[in-house]
UniProtKB/TrEMBL annotation:
This is mRNA interferase toxin RelE. The gene is relE. It comes from the Bacteria. Belongs to the RelE toxin family. InterPro entries: RelE/ParE_toxin, RelE/ParE_toxin_dom_sf. It holds the Pfam family ParE_toxin. SUPFAM superfamilies: RelE-like. Coiled coil: none annotated. It comes from Methylobacterium jeotgali. The lineage of its organism: Bacteria, Pseudomonadati, Pseudomonadota, Alphaproteobacteria, Hyphomicrobiales. The keyword Protease does not apply.
């Protein structure tokens, strides 16, 4: 059963600011993750980002951080943005 995709309001604003090409690449990867969101290689190890995973667009330098909730069967996008100095991860920590 595929998971439902949700966005935090602040993450949705970041999503809308992304270019169409980057959004398209993230959409493709998110569609794959809705079927099996827990990819061990992409799990974030920080204690304050429990149940959080990342999607990397290496060539473009963007990261998307999402949280998996098995109870509600949802994948919630927490942050999306450039990788610069861990900015996407810091933003995710604050949310």
């Amino acid at each position: 059963m595929p998971y439902e995709l949700r966005f935090l309001p602040s993450a949705l604003k970041e999503w809308e600011k992304l270019g169409a090409t980057v959004r398209g690449q993230f959409k493709k990867k998110l569609a794959e993750r809705l079927d099996s969101p827990r990819v061990e290689a992409d799990k974030l190890r920080a204690a304050d980002l429990k149940d959080c995973y990342k999607i990397k667009l290496r060539a473009a330098g963007y990261r998307l951080v999402y949280r998996v909730d098995d109870q509600a069967v949802t994948v919630t996008v927490i942050a999306a943005g450039r990788r610069e100095r861990g900015l996407a991860y810091e933003t995710a920590r604050k949310r």
